[in-house]
Design a protein that fits this description.
By secondary structure, this protein is an alpha/beta fold. It is built from eleven helices and ten strands. The strands form two sheets. Strands 6-7-8-3-9-10 form a six-stranded mixed sheet, with helices on both faces. It has a four-stranded antiparallel sheet with strand order 2-1-4-5, sandwiched between helices. Helix 4 runs parallel beside helix 7 and helix 5 packs across helix 7.
């Protein structure tokens, strides 16, 4: 069972929380289907992500959450034999899978933070600058300016400002995740995707990343995959529920958690099924 995009869009807009700026659709996903080695993984998924809002993608393990996220910046095709078989992903009205679309440019515009933070074998400062150097995305900015601004925006500057020339590998896991966020922000992305960004973190580090996500949505849309329902309820404005590769329901997060329309969503939210 899937839902119509128009119905979802009207219900999402009906109860969006008050945030700066208008509730403008950034991602529009239409009847999206994905297969791995010919095996269907996503089937006619419909979803919307609004500008300067947080969309949480939730659902049981194996429901296709991370796969959907990876279609949104074309990192899906980096996996051999994975491909979009039908449907469309639009970003600001542009087809991400249209003929002639530059996948590398898409990944620059729409950055992803992964579940396991990885420090490149270089200094903290050079980690921040890595994507800027790769894409030659200086835009008149100085190195020191980029490093400080991005580390400040990631909530890490005060902790590392006296040792940015030291190897990033010396950071804690929680600090590394925030460094990965700073590295993504250095490219001036137009959207940020996050795949289970807190799953390896302790409660204190998780709280810091959650605060950061809420702050970042003032600047750009954030889409997060999370298995943590409490986290989704704390930080997201809308939630999308996937089940067995299908989009069963999307709505304002509080409504999803208090008055879901779909029976499977209700059973999952209330803990009747895992």
């Amino acid at each position: 069972m899937t839902f119509q995009l128009e119905t979802t869009y009207s219900r999402v807009l009906e109860g969006v929380r008050q945030v700066p700026g208008p509730a403008v659709s950034t991602f529009d996903i239409h009847d999206l289907s994905v297969a791995f080695n010919g095996r269907s993984v996503l089937r006619k998924v419909n979803a919307i992500a609004l500008d300067r809002h947080v969309l949480a993608i939730i659902g049981p393990s194996g429901s296709g959450k991370s796969t959907l996220l990876r279609t949104m910046n074309r990192t899906l095709e980096l996996t051999p034999d994975a491909r979009v078989t039908s449907g469309d992903v639009l970003f600001k009205g542009e087809r991400l899978y249209g003929n002639g679309t530059d996948a590398r440019l898409v990944r620059k515009r729409i950055c992803m933070v992964h579940q396991k933070p990885v420090a490149f074998p270089m200094s903290i400062a050079e980690n921040v600058l890595f994507g800027v150097r790769f894409h030659k995305n200086w835009n008149g900015r100085r190195k020191d300016e980029i490093i400080q601004n991005c580390l400040e925006n990631a909530g890490l500057w005060d902790e590392v400002k006296d040792r940015v020339s030291e190897p990033a590998s010396r950071l804690s896991v929680g600090q590394l995740q925030r460094l990965c966020i700073a590295r993504a922000l250095a490219n001036d992305p137009e959207a940020l995707l996050m795949d289970e960004p807190c799953s390896a973190l302790d409660p204190v580090s998780t709280a810091r990343v959650e605060e950061l996500i809420v702050a970042l949505k003032r600047q750009l849309p954030v889409v997060i995959v999370t298995h943590n329902l409490a986290q989704a309820r704390r930080i997201s404005d809308q939630s999308l529920f996937l089940y067995d590769g299908q989009s069963l329901e999307q709505d304002v997060t509080e409504r999803i958690f208090t008055d879901p329309r779909n029976g499977r969503v209700h059973d999952f939210i209330t803990g009747k099924v895992g």
